[in-house]
Design a protein that fits this description.
Radius of gyration: 21 Å
Largest sheet: 6 strands, parallel
Order of helices and strands: EHEHEHHEHHEEHHH
Structural class: alpha/beta
Number of helices: 9
Number of strands: 6
Oligomer: single chain
Helix content: 40-55%
Strand content: 5-15%
């Protein structure tokens, strides 16, 4: 699966959150595409990049309930009517679409009656409308709230969840999570030798065995339910 991360941030080098996410993305086989660095936008090249991707992620900080102006400028030039839906071809119709947004306010405040008095789904509605018009499969929004206040353990969990969001098979089921972790563990194991991680292979084998046990249990429960229905 090819994942394209379309990033918008006017001062990305000064952003602790974006730099953290960039390092996490580097560990995955994804394309990190910062729109403010493009200068003059080559529309044909940008559209080709979108068409060559399987999963397209818009990533940005929330500025006054919207993305930075760089993403809007990129959208206006690249997402032309004919490209999105007007030429009769579903150029993006087989793609997945997701949003990674970081906020300065706690996520709990984005609700009716909260400090923001609006939900993040409502804020993201214009982007989802574009994806829907393009017949894309829309993923749940990945929200990072107040990253600067997270402790090390919380940031590590954010990193893992972010990496899964970029590359894990959708939807986010237990089976898909297990497959992702097994693949990641196997890939990381290649970088260790016996002196670096003597217990890594044992841990991986244990994880695989537990996953197989869960699958067997699910199968057994299915047979029991089928017997009850009969």
């Amino acid at each position: 699966m090819k994942t394209l991360v379309v990033v918008s941030h006017p001062k990305i080098n000064d952003s602790q959150t974006q730099q953290f996410l960039l390092q996490g993305a580097k560990l995955q086989d994804v394309t990190w595409h910062h729109v403010e660095e493009l200068g003059e936008i080559d529309v044909d090249k940008e559209q080709a990049l979108l068409m060559d991707s399987d999963r397209i992620i818009f990533q940005f900080p929330l500025y006054w309930y919207a993305a930075p102006s760089g993403l809007k400028d990129w959208e206006d030039k690249v997402l032309t009517r004919n490209f999105v839906y007007g030429d009769g071809d579903d150029n993006l119709g087989d793609k997945e679409f997701g949003i990674v947004v970081n906020t300065g306010m706690p996520q709990k405040e984005f609700q009716r009656g909260g400090t923001e008095n609006i939900t993040l789904d409502e804020v993201m509605a214009p982007y989802h409308a574009i994806a829907d018009r393009a017949k894309m499969q829309i993923m749940p929004t990945f929200v990072i709230s107040q990253f600067q206040y997270q402790d090390d353990q919380e940031q590590m969990q954010t990193l893992i969840d972010y990496q899964r969001y970029l590359t894990q098979v959708y939807p986010d089921t237990l089976t898909n999570r297990q497959a992702w972790f097994e693949r990641e563990f196997t890939d990381r194991l290649k970088y260790f030798n016996d002196t670096d991680c003597t217990e890594c292979e044992t841990l991986l084998n244990t994880f695989i065995q537990r996953r197989e046990d869960v699958e067997q249990l699910k199968s057994t429960i299915g047979l029991i339910k089928q017997g009850e229905d009969e």
